[in-house]
């Protein structure tokens, strides 16, 4: 069974969106008719992590990307995730470094091309902290490159300008972007369609997620089902065309009480979308 497609882009589902164990994910994917998954690796670091990876290996899936998150992160507010997000907090760096290095090994062993993560808020006026963050990113990207995979930073916790400047400065062959358009809106970091055009040469994997901006600056926006928010689905997909994106579209849903149906509806909208006819 092959996953449905949106034009030339294969569709995947983010496993964590389904809020169930691996066997529940497998059942949901059969119901959706999907064979591609953006796989959460965080369960591999729990007590039954070996069993989780064994079960993953038994599935007939194509894994579009693996994704790692950190146990100390606090998403209750923008202030809390700024303080606790990604590889920024010094108190957790040793633990997080080992976690990412292990995740790189798992990703490579599973023959998955990408490991994605929120690296944390990279906008910092303190040059010492900014340099330390860059050194950490390079160290992890070096390790990824040695295993033949790419480390993808997920968008949202910084502006597109800031992320572009970082990637241009580092110029690392194993460093790229997992583009999440809704995160740009949820964090109040700009227009996702314009960001695609600015960041296109680094985009290797894409999340399909929508959101409405917060009414009060400095607070969370609201995630909504695909095509019900402010991303602008048609404009976003056309922007991906303009950069000649050729990867997967992984549907993500992180709120709501009927996520399976929301994912199903997103898949229906995506498969019905018609690529633009380009003049030759």
How is the topology of this model organized?
Elements: E1 5-6, E2 9-14, H1 22-32, E3 36-40, H2 49-57, E4 62-67, H3 78-84, H4 93-109, E5 114-117, H5 127-146, E6 150-154, H6 160-170, E7 175-179, H7 181-186, H8 192-199, E8 203-208, E9 210-212, E10 222-224, H9 233-242, E11 249-251, H10 259-272
Parallel strand pairs: 2-3, 2-11, 3-4, 4-5, 5-6, 6-7, 7-8, 8-11
Antiparallel strand pairs: 1-2, 9-10
- Nearest-angstrom radius of gyration? 18 Å
What percentage of amino acids are in beta strands? Answer: 15-25%
* Helix and strand sequence: EEHEHEHHEHEHEHHEEEHEH
For this structure, what is the CATH class?
Answer: Alpha Beta
Shape: globular
Strand order in the largest sheet: 2-3-4-5-6-7-8-11
Strands, count: 11
Q: Main beta sheet, described?
A: 8 strands, parallel, barrel
Q: Structural class, please?
A: alpha/beta
Mean pLDDT: 95
Low-confidence stretches: none
Q: What does this protein look like?
A:
- The protein is an alpha/beta fold.
- It has a single domain (about 5-270), classed as Divalent-metal-dependent TIM barrel enzymes (TIM Barrel), CATH 3.20.20.
- The chain has helices at about 20-30, 50-55, 80-85, 95-110, 125-145, 160-170, 180-185, 190-200, 235-240, 260-270; strands at about 5, 10-15, 35-40, 60-65, 115, 150-155, 175-180, 205-210, 210, 220-225, 250.
- Strands 2-3-4-5-6-7-8-11 form an eight-stranded parallel β-barrel. The protein has a two-stranded antiparallel ribbon with strand order 9-10.
- Helix 6 (about 160-170) links the parallel strand 6 and strand 7.
- Helix 4 (about 95-110) packs parallel to helix 5 (about 125-145), helix 6 (about 160-170) runs parallel beside helix 8 and helix 8 runs parallel beside helix 9.
- The radius of gyration is 18 Å and the shape is globular.
């Amino acid at each position: 069974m092959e996953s449905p497609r949106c034009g030339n882009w294969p569709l995947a589902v983010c496993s964590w969106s389904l809020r169930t164990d691996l066997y529940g994910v497998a059942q949901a994917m059969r119901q959706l008719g999907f064979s591609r998954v953006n796989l959460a690796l965080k369960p591999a670091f729990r007590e039954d992590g070996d069993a989780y990876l064994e079960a993953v290996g038994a599935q007939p899936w194509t894994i579009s990307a693996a994704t790692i998150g950190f146990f100390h992160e606090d998403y209750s507010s923008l202030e809390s995730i700024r303080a606790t997000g990604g590889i920024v907090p010094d108190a957790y760096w040793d633990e997080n470094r080992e976690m990412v290095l292990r995740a790189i090994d798992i990703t490579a062993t599973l023959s998955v091309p990408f490991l994605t993560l929120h690296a944390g808020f990279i906008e910092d006026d303190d040059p010492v902290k900014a340099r330390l963050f860059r050194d950490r990113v390079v160290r992890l990207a070096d390790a990824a490159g040695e295993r033949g995979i790419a480390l993808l930073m997920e968008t949202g916790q910084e502006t597109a300008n800031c992320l572009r400047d970082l990637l241009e400065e580092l110029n690392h062959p194993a460093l790229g972007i997992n583009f999440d358009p809704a995160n740009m809106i949820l964090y109040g970091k700009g227009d996702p369609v314009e960001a695609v055009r600015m960041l296109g040469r680094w985009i290797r994997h894409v999340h399909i997620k929508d959101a409405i901006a917060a009414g009060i600056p400095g607070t969370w926006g609201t995630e909504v089902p695909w095509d019900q928010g402010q991303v602008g689905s048609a404009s976003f997909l056309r922007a991906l065309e303009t950069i000649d994106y050729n990867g997967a579209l992984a549907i993500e849903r992180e709120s709501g009480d009927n996520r399976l149906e929301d994912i199903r509806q997103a898949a229906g909208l995506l498969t019905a979308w018609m690529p633009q006819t380009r003049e030759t």
